[in-house]
Amino acid sequence: MKQYKTYIFDLDGTLLNTLNDLAASTNYALRQFAMPEHDIDSIRRFVGNGVRLLMERAIPDGARNPQFEECFATFRKHYMEHSLDTTVPYEGISALIHALSQRGNNMAVVSNKFYAATRELVAHFFPEIPVAVGEHEAEGIRKKPAPDTVEEALRLLGVGKDDAVYVGDSDVDLATARNSGLPCISVLWGFRDRDFLIEHGATTFVNHPMEIIAED
Is the pTM of this model over 0.70? Predict the structure, then answer.
């Protein structure tokens, strides 16, 4: 695997297995409004482009539902209180982050998860990662696949795009890397499988986190 100086990581499905907590908060919110709940495989298909779109997919009629905003707010509140209930790093991720830190690599996380949750999760699990950028549209930073969060992360790190790579698990991550002008490493332990990723243009894959820094 080519070695880079700067690693920009997606969060959900790449560094952290957040699926069970996302599903629990989704179904909690749906129950409060007597809406049908979803199984874990359906939630897996819904995630990947921010929690608002997750809820648009989960709620009947999506954003057109007159109770959408209330239900979405209920989800957000519940998730902020329960985002650490079962969420854990994928096997080998903590070792990878530590190895990159020891080597002096630049690292950042960019996510379509809302800003506060992104910061909280990264600070809790990965204190060696100094920069975490989540969704904060009020500041004019568009969510992925726009390049804005990547560009903001690079700005906060004080580095350019040269010798930088994006690491993610989804089609949105592939598009984000492409829009940012970065190569992309697609991980195979996340929310999407190899065939799906190939269909969306993936060319570089890893089966285990430490392969990211393995010498050719």
Answer: yes
